[in-house]
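In this section we walk through a basic example: taking a raw amino acid sequence and producing a predicted 3D structure, encoded as discrete structure tokens. The instruction is simple. Fold the sequence below.
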Amino acid sequence: MDGVKIMDLKALYQEILNEHNINPNHKGVIENPTFTLQGVNPSCGDNIYLQLVIDENGIITDGSFNGSGCAVSQASVDMMLDSIIGKSKEEALRLAQLFMDMIQGKASDGQIEELDEAAALKNISFMPARVKCAVLGWHTMQEMLSKNLTSGQGTASHCEEGSCQ
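The resulting token sequence is shown next.
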């Protein structure tokens, strides 16, 4: 019976990933974003432009992404935006750290639930070639918010320091 539940869960996670890749909620361009940062994964060619609108109270009121990449990178950034819109910069950064902890196997199941649909990427760590794809949007957002980068380019190069695996 447990085998059936695991298969059902894997199928659900695959469905969530496919839905965010095929029908992303946040793909597009925002006029007058507060922040825009390019995220690049040089190892596979994923390339996104992340845009956020943050109000005077530090709340992320809108977000979008544009660019090209594999299904994992596109779906992950879309799920990330679902998770952080309506949250403060600090809460978005906390969720990003929780996502990284999940990828590294350091987060409990209870903590992972906070990530909502992004929890579908929990087992991506078993596919090392896809880890950088999954974290690209999250790392781009972390660089943007922690360094207050209003524009520029970020990379997944910090993954090479071991923080993504």
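Looking at the output, two observations stand out. DSSP finds five helices and four strands in the chain. The longest strand covers residues 46-54. In the next section we compare this with other chains.
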